[in-house]
Design goal:
Strand content: 5-15%
CATH class: Alpha Beta
Shape: globular
Number of domains: 1
GO biological process, one term: N-acetylneuraminate catabolic process
Radius of gyration: 18 Å
InterPro entries: Aldolase_TIM, DapA-like, Schiff_base-form_aldolases_AS
Order of helices and strands: EHEHEHEHEHHEHEHEHHHH
Pfam families: DHDPS
CATH topology: TIM Barrel
Number of strands: 8
CATH architecture: Alpha-Beta Barrel
Largest sheet: 8 strands, parallel
Strand order of the largest sheet: 1-8-7-6-5-4-3-2
Structural class: alpha/beta
Family: Belongs to the DapA family.
Protein name: Dihydrodipicolinate synthase
CATH superfamily: Aldolase class I
């Protein structure tokens, strides 16, 4: 059966930086506590939203140590161990275990690309090396491989994987994964990583969501989860409509794309809301400014957040 610790809203945390690009621990703690006070059910640290691939090993440890200290056992903390190959991921996993996280999250290896046999072996090696719940992070846009349902279910039934964080953008495949998992007795915790289709994921039986937008607006996602648990699907849909409108903060910036537009918009919005002190980005990404920030302010205002 799925692990009850990893259900509900588990935001992938934004990593605030100072203007000098050091970790802004004060802003980070304020952001984490804001989400915890809103009732989120866990924290996913060092995912894509957390700038994991922009961070040195020392920065990764600093981010994790701060998050575990702030969480203080109130909710489970999942740590991304994302890297190019297995040995590096195992090193990160051991560091995360020593810091005291509750679970780890790994992608397929990237750069030296392999097939499904190598991807499967990667997850098995990590699980053998570290006695922590292991989630597979399905994000083919970044690692150039889609994790198959057969692979995920095989590793779930065998206890290698505890769950899946799905950021594939393939909602048809996601629905089939939910069906296969249910038929097998729910060995996996299945979480959607897409902010604007959480309602459909819950209707299909997903165990929770990992919405980056919850860094900006955590309470609506918690309310949506509560409504889903109560079977109030009308309210689930209403909240999803509101959140979909707010998610337009990532669409209004001009002249930027990818991480600069997505996480850049989250940071700009959080700064405008007084959650973090700066919307500084990691090199070589430039922080949003000028008309792009004004456009984000416009979306926030239209959602009643300013």
């Amino acid at each position: 059966m799925s692990d009850p610790r990893f259900r509900g809203v588990i935001p992938p945390t934004v990593t605030p930086l100072t203007e000098e690009r050091e970790l802004d621990k004060e802003s980070f703690a304020r952001s984490l506590n804001r989400m915890l006070d809103a009732g989120v059910h866990g924290l996913f640290v060092l995912g894509s939203t957390s700038e994991v691939v922009f961070s040195t090993d020392a920065r990764r440890r600093e981010i994790l140590e701060t998050a575990v200290e702030v969480a203080n056992g109130r909710v489970p903390v999942l740590a991304g161990i994302i890297d190019m190959q297995t040995e590096r991921m195992i090193e990160h996993a051991r560091d995360a275990q020593a810091i005291g996280v509750d679970g780890i999250v790994a992608t397929a290896p990237f750069y030296a690309l392999g097939g499904e046999a190598e991807i499967e072996a990667n997850f098995r090696y990590i699980r053998d090396a570290v006695d922590l719940p292991l989630f597979a992070y399905d994000i083919p846009v970044c690692v150039h491989k889609k994790l198959s349902i057969d692979l995920l279910m095989r590793l779930g039934r065998e206890g290698v994987l505890t769950g899946v964080k799905d950021s594939s953008g393939d909602d048809v495949n996601f629905r089939f994964l939910l069906e296969e998992n249910k038929a097998a007795g729910n060995p996996l915790n299945i979480l959607t990583g897409h902010e604007v289709v959480v309602d459909g994921a819950y209707m299909g039986g997903a165990d929770g969501s990992v919405p980056g937008l919850a860094n900006v607006a955590p309470r609506p996602y918690v309310e949506q989860w509560d409504a889903a648990q109560a079977g109030d699907w009308k309210r689930v849909a209403e909240l999803q409509d509101e959140l979909a409108h707010l998610m337009r903060i990532v669409m209004v910036p001009k002249g930027v794309q990818g991480f600069a537009a997505g996480v850049g918009a989250f940071k700009a919005a959080m700064k405008e809301l007084g959650v973090i002190a700066s919307n500084q980005m990691p090199r070589p990404v430039k922080a949003l400014e000028g008309e792009n920030v004004e456009a984000i302010r416009g979306v926030l205002a239209s959602c009643g957040l300013l």
